[in-house]
Structure formats: C-alpha cells, structure tokens
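Hello,

Following up on my earlier ticket. Below are the two sequence lines again, exactly as submitted.
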Amino acid sequence: QKEVEQDPGPLSVPEGAIVSLNCTYSNSAFQYFMWYRQYSRKGPELLMYTYSSGNKEDGRFTAQVDKSSKYISLFIRDSQPSDSATYLCAMLGIQGAQKLVFGQGTRLTINP
Amino acid sequence: DSGVTQTPKHLITATGQRVTLRCSPRSGDLSVYWYQQSLDQGLQFLIQYYNGEERAKGNILERFSAQQFPDLHSELNLSSLELGDSALYFCASSVEASFYNEQFFGPGTRLTVL
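Thanks for your patience. The regenerated structure is below:
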C-alpha cells in the first residue's frame, strides 16, 4: 500500500464548476501538506501548502487538511480552462530532510 | 520559469549505457533534490544534497548515483540502463534543507531507453 493515495482520474468538468481533489495518507508523521500543479511537459509548481490541520484559502483555491481522518482536499472555485493540468498532492514529515512523498496525481480537464 | 535549469531536455539511449543528467539550482539555493516520474510509480524522491553533502536518500537504485559540486550544480548518473529507467527526471532546489522550504522544480529531462 502506498503512503499517499490519490485517484488518477481523469476528471473532466465544465468551466465554472467547483472542483474537488483529494488524497488520503497512512503516515501519521506527515506535518506539511502541499498541492502542486503540473502542466503537460512541465515541472510541478507549488500551488499551496498547509502545516498541520485546517483550511487555507488563496484566491479561487482552498486547501483543507483533516489529520484525524488522514485526508486532504483541494477545492477550485469558478474553474477555468487554464486550470486544466495534473494536480499532485505531496506530504512531508519533520525529519530534518525534505523527502516529499507525492500522490499519483489527478489529471483535470476544464471544458469551455 | 522556476529558475532551476536542467540539461539535456531529452535523452535517447540504449540499454546498458550510462548517462549524466545535469541540474543548476536557483541562485542562492543550497539544497538540490532529484525525482523520477514514471506512469506507473508517479513522482518519486531519489536523493537530496545540501551544500555538497548527501542529506537524504529515497528509493534510488544502486546503478544510480549523484553528486553536488562546489558551484552547487548537481549531476545524476544513471548506469547499466534498463528499459524501465525510461522516465522524466526532475531536479528541484530549495534554500535550506531543514523544516519546510518550498522546492522549485526544473523542467525535467525526458529519458528514453531503447
């Protein structure tokens, strides 16, 4: 069983829809939770990060972490065609070394 | 543009061969990371260097090795290549190596082993 599980999709929604992406994890040592966006043939870029449990909002993006359920989510409001990409969740423990553990990534398409 | 550069962009080689991938971190970043991205395994951490010293290892094969040079650029060496080594290889860099520091990813090197 992988430490981080993420549905690879693909997920296809109409423009303007609310998108919900999520990951589950098994390692209770994870303290930092990140969402990366990866466009085709590009490197991942950090969208948001959250420390421990709670919500964080940045424009149209909201990240939620529920450590009791070992479940994290990313919500995208008013989705745009430019949001079409692969979204990867990533997690990190406090170990003195930054060994990011990634989910498989969810491929998202926003249809105009 | 993240500021991390990787060369070459594409590499096509044969089984049994050896290749070297190069990474230049963002200006001021001391820590370099290597990741492998394949369709079946996803994005996996290979190894981390901080200011020239190895800091952490992931599931890196013994056929693979890396180093970080005094000018902070890094090289990933892949030897005795197998078909299964075909993947995207990403380098990332961050300012420090402890606690949370945002990792900035390069554009990647696409390796194809025939």
